Design the sequence.
């Protein structure tokens, strides 16, 4: 579970997060939905430790993470534009987080093969990122983020740069991944349809505050 309590963040005279409170339940796939500039990325980056709130408290699994560096927060992060290591193969990219943690080679290889299978890149391990499509690259990014067994998976508009058809396909992958791995996931999106399609909880942001939070059925009357 992630708790965000009374978090404020200002940039000069602009309030990006305004006394914001939210609870992300363990194992949920929670979407942060809201218009551009509503503070979604700032909130996600604050959870990741890439941004530092001016005040307030964020906990992950009961631990106050103020001052804890990003790499010690047990987080996997996927951005809209994935910064893959271009000179490394798909396998090496996915293994990266494990390699720097000096896990045994055999263990890494088994884990990476497993994850590449889960994201449907089983036959692509020896390719380079430039030889993948945009959708395949984002699936590689998901596998890489999951390789370290994160407590929390943070996704910032991960499908935003892809065309509609690939986006739809990636949503299906994400749902499947979440069903199989049960990692507590927070997805930033400005696309209501995406939130409705993949999330089991939706938090609607506006001007740095949570306006509503609930299940898709609670928030939107859908047949
Ligand atoms: P969203 O993800 O909902 O589009 P953001 O969290 O990226 O919103 O940004 C919220 C507001 O804070 C925006 O108006 C943005 O321009 C501003 N902002 C974000 N980061 C910075 C920064 N580093 N410096 C100044 N303003 C920023
Ligand atoms: P996205 O919404 O695609 O995640 P953003 O527009 O939020 O991208 O911003 C990307 C980066 O630029 C972030 O590091 C953010 O903090 C910074 N940023 C956003 N808005 C501003 C701004 N008005 N001034 C300075 N930096 C900004």
Sequence:
């Amino acid at each position: 579970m992630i708790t965000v309590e009374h978090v404020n963040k200002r940039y000069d005279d602009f309030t990006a997060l305004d006394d914001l409170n939210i609870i992300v339940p363990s194992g949920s796939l929670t979407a942060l939905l809201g218009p551009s500039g509503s503070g979604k990325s700032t909130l996600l980056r604050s959870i990741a430790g890439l941004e530092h709130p001016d005040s307030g408290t964020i906990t992950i699994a009961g631990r106050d993470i103020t001052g804890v560096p990003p790499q010690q927060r047990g987080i996997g992060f996927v951005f809209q534009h994935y910064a893959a290591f271009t000179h490394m193969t798909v396998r090496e990219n996915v293994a990266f987080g494990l390699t720097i943690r000096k896990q045994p080679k055999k263990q890494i290889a088994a884990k990476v093969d497993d994850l590449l299978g889960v994201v449907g890149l089983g036959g692509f391990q020896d390719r380079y990122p430039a030889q993948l499509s945009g959708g395949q690259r984002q699936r590689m990014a998901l596998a890489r983020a999951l390789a370290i067994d994160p407590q929390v998976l943070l996704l910032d508009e991960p499908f935003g740069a892809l065309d509609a058809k690939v986006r739809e396909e990636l949503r299906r992958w994400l749902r499947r991944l979440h069903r199989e791995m049960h990692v507590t996931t927070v997805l930033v999106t400005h696309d209501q349809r995406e939130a409705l399609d993949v999330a089991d909880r939706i938090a609607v942001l506006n001007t740095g505050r949570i306006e509503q939070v609930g299940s898709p059925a609670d928030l939107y009357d859908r047949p």
